[in-house]
Design the sequence.
């Protein structure tokens, strides 16, 4: 059990590294592309944009863990909602207000669009993101809906597996013939089925089943290989090789080979990775631009933006995300706890001749049957 816990702890560290990679990508090469830096950003940081792909693999892994522990789609939906939405709502308010004051002007959205962002349906309705990073949250939420419908609707893994095969084949066909997809199917194939990213989630689910249930059978092994191979077709070189490398690192972590990553700083960064993802991009752009306007060196502006983003992420994590999760888990625990029987003498069952009475307490009126 200690070894298993260490493996999952290493995944938390990977989450922190991926989040930092995304932040540095946005603050350095991507900011330079959008607005221009006065210095040259390391080209290696271009790979940071693919930290999101590692998040998707992690989500697939964690989501199946949640499915196996959750008895109903309603409980699953509530668990995901309390995991995502309170911190998201706080991040939307903070980002929207900050961008209104500091800019950048091209990142300002209307109040109506900001309110629609709280539902994560805004992209489907043609409204912009409050923060550019929210595109992946729309995909996450869509995946949760699909997987809940399939898992609970079909009744478990055996019936779910053929649907995952079909989804994977559609994903291959979509990325191979991306520009030839008919207009009538674009929304379904590119958005609702998010075929550029779906195999990342599916592979995470398969790796979880390998971790939880032991070596997979031939069908699951073949599906895992197919979903991993999808990245070689879906993304351009050398980024496809980087995503392939992310798979290797992820599997090593699950196998317990990367416990060296379980360092306090990385674990803490992993713990705030979600809130850091929520608040870093547009707020950081405003701070970097303000630093340039104040005559500060570009690298110093980036460091200030990074410090502010991490501070805000920690505040949201400890002030919103964790309390919301604690409240939800406490409520679930209270609802699932058996009620205590009312005190009082229990009736004695009828006896036959020579039988020793066996007094069995009966549940009171408030007990669960």
Sequence:
């Amino acid at each position: 059990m200690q070894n298993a816990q260490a493996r999952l702890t290493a995944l938390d560290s990977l989450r922190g590294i991926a989040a930092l990679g995304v932040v540095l990508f946005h603050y350095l090469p991507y900011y330079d592309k959008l607005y221009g830096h006065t210095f040259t950003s390391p080209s290696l940081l271009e790979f940071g944009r693919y930290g999101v792909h590692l998040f998707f693999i992690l989500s697939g892994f964690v989501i199946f863990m949640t499915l196996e522990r959750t008895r109903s789609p309603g409980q699953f939906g509530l668990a995901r909602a309390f995991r995502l939405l309170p911190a998201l709502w706080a991040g939307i308010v903070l980002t929207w207000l900050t961008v209104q004051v500091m800019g950048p002007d091209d990142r300002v959205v209307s109040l109506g669009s900001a309110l629609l962002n709280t539902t994560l349906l805004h992209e489907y309705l043609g409204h912009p993101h409050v923060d550019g990073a929210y595109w992946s949250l729309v995909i996450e939420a869509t995946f949760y809906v699909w997987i809940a419908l399939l898992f609970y609707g079909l009744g478990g893994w055996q019936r779910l597996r053929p649907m995952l095969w079909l989804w994977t084949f559609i994903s291959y066909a979509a990325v191979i013939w991306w520009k030839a997809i008919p207009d009538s199917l674009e929304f379904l194939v590119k958005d609702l089925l998010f075929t550029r990213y779906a195999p990342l989630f599916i592979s995470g689910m398969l790796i979880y089943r390998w971790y939880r249930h032991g070596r997979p059978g031939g069908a699951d092994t073949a599906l895992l290989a197919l979903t991993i191979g999808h990245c070689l077709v879906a993304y351009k070189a050398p980024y496809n090789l980087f995503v392939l490398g992310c798979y290797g690192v992820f599997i090593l972590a699950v196998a317990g080979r990367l416990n060296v990553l379980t360092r306090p700083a990385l674990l803490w960064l992993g713990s705030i990775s979600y809130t850091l993802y929520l608040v870093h991009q547009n707020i950081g752009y405003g701070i970097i631009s303000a630093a340039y306007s104040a005559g500060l060196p570009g690298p110093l502006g980036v460091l200030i933006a990074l410090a502010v983003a991490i501070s805000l992420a920690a505040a949201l994590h400890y002030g919103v995300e964790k309390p919301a999760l604690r409240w939800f888990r406490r409520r679930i625990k209270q609802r699932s706890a058996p009620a205590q029987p009312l005190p009082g003498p229990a009736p004695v069952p009828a006896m036959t001749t020579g039988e020793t009475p066996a007094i069995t307490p009966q549940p009171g009126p408030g007990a669960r049957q």
